[in-house]
Amino acid sequence: MPENELITSAWNRFWELGKLTTKVGTSLATNAALNLFYTQESQDKNKLENLLRNAERITQSLSRLKGGAMKIGQMLSLQDGLLPPEVMAVLQSLQKDSRPVSFHRIQETLESEIPDYREKFTHIEEKPFASASIGQVHKAVTREGEDVIIKIQYPGIDRAILGDLKNLRVLFKALASWFTNTDINPIWTEIKTKLLEEIDYWQESRNQQYFYDHFSGHPRIRIPRPLPELTTRRVITSEFVEGISLEEAARLSQEERNLWAGTLFELVMGQLVKEERLHTDPNAANFAFLREGVIIMYDFGSVKITNPIIRNGYREILKASLQQEMEKIPEILFTMGIRMNQTNPIPWSFIQPYMEIFMPIFTEKPYCFGGKNNLIKKVMDQARGNAFQARDLSFPADMVFIDRTIGGHLGNLARLAPCGDWEKILTPLLE
Questions:
Q1: Which helix (H) or strand (E) holds 239?
Q2: Neighbour tally for 70: CB within 10 Å
Q3: Taking the domains of the chain in order of start, what are their residue ranges?
Q4: Tell me: the pLDDT tens digits for 100-152?
Q5: Is the Cα torsion angle 364, 368, 373, 377 positive or negative in sign?
Q6: Contact indicator for 164, 13 with CB cutoff of 8 Å
Q7: Using one digit for the tens of pLDDT, what is the confidence trace for 51-78?
Q8: How many Å from the N-terminal Cα to the C-terminal Cα in the chain?
């Protein structure tokens, strides 16, 4: 990316986001006014076409702005059910690696954060190893000869994010209000909190240390060792542990894919029902694969300390499902804060189609992800049919990043297309 495309000026970002918010708001309002003269079928069609045009606008603007703007778009793109599937598909392009910033721009951050970095590193590759919404990664070698990676924030991006938040809130509320009657202020607060945590690389290093310690000795889960002595609020350094990408792993043998998927399933479900902390960025780029089912996990900027009530609720839902005690599920969801009109349990008629989508994972042995078992498509198709009723569905803000994690990893499993006995992996985690 040419350096003049990295927009960090507060005024320029305010102007860019302000224009985007105005365009989207005017477009939605105009469409709503015109729809008064159409049949319900035509209204639905016009509404979707209008949203797709606005999703394209949003994607183009947010990908240029990077930072909080792009990160919010990425978060929205993984919130199944909040927006129509067609709109989600457009936003999902924001999950791809963004174009890199030139090294001399990145050096601005490195020099301000670690003034003597030339003494601490004998070599830093100028070509980035990866680039994302808030910073980019460069391979390097320490003075002691250790291969490491350095993640460096784009210069000024932390200040830019703080300035983005007001406009992003307006944009987020305008879009979400079309599809839900739920008060989205707590959801926005949750997103804002996690976004501010992601620009604090000290916090990310602490998160990484937790996972490094927690999985130390695990035979199939590997966490790169953080190097706090080479870390600041805008620069984070870790040992370099390289594996193959999900895309490469998906081309290998069925046996190897089954092993990796078993590890991934155990990793995600274990965090969901047992662990205090949950890694909540399921982007495939945050995972790499080694032989014999070993998975490497990267990027600990988005980590959530989960509510015990939510964690226990998922565990009880899974237990009830495996024991064929489906009648318990509406009350469990109610206890978790997932309700209709904030006061009533969700009727079984609403839940049952979703259970029919997911139960084969545990009842079919082996069950194969991917192919005809496209869970994301089935869920989205069902959500499309439930759109009107779902407007009255309320859920705790705690669920935002948990749902993002589950949905993202269902997609990762589908890409691996593994077959296995998933109940056998899950059962010990529920004990």
A1: strand 235-239
A2: 22
A3: 3-99+156-198, 243-431
A4: 788 988 999 999 999 999 999 999 999 999 887 788 999 999 999 999 999 99
A5: positive
A6: yes
A7: 666 666 666 666 555 555 556 555 555 4
A8: 50
